[in-house]
Amino acid sequence: MLVFRGVPECATTSTVLTIGNFDGVHRGHRSLLAELKVKALELALPATVLTFEPHPRELFAPEQAPARLASLRDKLELLADCGVDRVHVCRFNRQLAALTAEQFIDRILLQGLSVKHLIIGDDFRFGRARGGDFAMLQHAGQVHQFAVEAMSTVDIGGVRVSSSAVREALASGRLDHAEQLLGRAYVIAGRVMDGMKVGRTIGFPTANIQVRRKRLPLAGVFAVTVSGIDKAPLPGAANIGVRPTLEEGLKPVLEVHLLDFDRDIYGRHVDVNFLHKLRDEAKFESLDALKAQIASDVADVRTYFNTRSLNGTTHG
After folding, report:
1. Top-confidence range, 117-131, 141-155, 204-218, 278-292
2. Among candidate residues 15, 24, 82, the one with its CA nearest the CA of residue 55
3. 9-41 tens-digit pLDDT
4. How does DSSP assign 226-247, residue by residue?
5. CB contact at 8 A, 258 and 168
């Protein structure tokens, strides 16, 4: 998959295109991308995604912006897995936001990407003040000879699949529901970094996963598996949060205690797969109280994985 920063002034090839943030690349996104790939093969043109960085709400209302489900790196990897040929990552700034819907069509879709077939979500809006909609794109397609196709929403159990629905499921600890919406367990990827090493001093060493996002869509203590170390995912207990027992005002971190594991994995890039929530994060009166709770959490995680093994469920 080819990744481009921005959109060229003049396209070098025509495209079959879709547009969106694609946060999490959930089952609704995957259904749309499958249609994109089919049409691209039919027309012998690259299956192309136009996405934005940062999320528009991070520019206009950063304090109200939703927690990201995936980093840009993770999103690009997921798009590649879906068979996308090209991704244009367009910097969302005030200059781009100021483009009228007509300017967006002319400069981005026609001149920059030479769109021949456009597939969009049925609620897609674009241009300054969200002035453009599906009807405008249909009219532009008739004038400039490109097809416009609306992708209807995907429902699972009567719930519309969306990034917002995934965030709500994660925030409320309903990881099974999040997995249904995503089509896979929720994953946070990152590199194992040096930490405060408090876990090691109390008998529960942890791998500290670098998390670059300011806000995370879930918090608490979880049963997880970690991929990227051995051939098979390794079971563990994870805490994701601000560690209030240690100090006030710490940044969110992801720490994983791998069960029956004692190897140096600093620098490894791993995927942490969230399978089951045990409890919310809490502040304890002392390190001894924290140690006792972690021991209880680890025992609960062992029980969780033992139960899954007895039921024939695979890890990861």
Report:
1. 141-155
2. 24
3. 999 999 999 999 999 999 999 999 999 999 999
4. EESSSSSPEEEEEEEE--TTT-
5. no
Highest mean pLDDT among 6-10, 64-68, 244-248: 6-10
Q: How far apart are CA 130 and CA 127, in angstroms?
A: 5
What's the pTM value of the predicted model, to 2 decimals?
0.87
Multiple choice CATH, 185-310, 2.40.30.30, 3.20.20.80, 3.40.30.10, 3.30.200.20: 2.40.30.30
Residue-wise pLDDT tens digits, 82-97: 999 999 999 988 888 8
Query: In terms of CATH, what superfamily is 2-156?
Result: HUPs (3.40.50.620)
The contacts found for 233-240 with CB under 8 angstroms, 24 or more apart, are 233/273, 233/315, 233/316, 234/258, 234/259, 234/261, 235/259, 235/301, 235/305, 235/315, 236/261, 236/301, 237/278, 237/294, 237/297, 237/298, 237/301, 238/272, 238/274, 239/206, 239/281, 240/188, 240/216, 240/281
Report domain extents, the chain. Answer: 2-156, 185-310
Distance separating alpha carbons of residues 223 and 226, to the nearest angstrom:
10
What is the Cα–Cα distance from 127 to 201, expressed in whole angstroms? Answer: 55
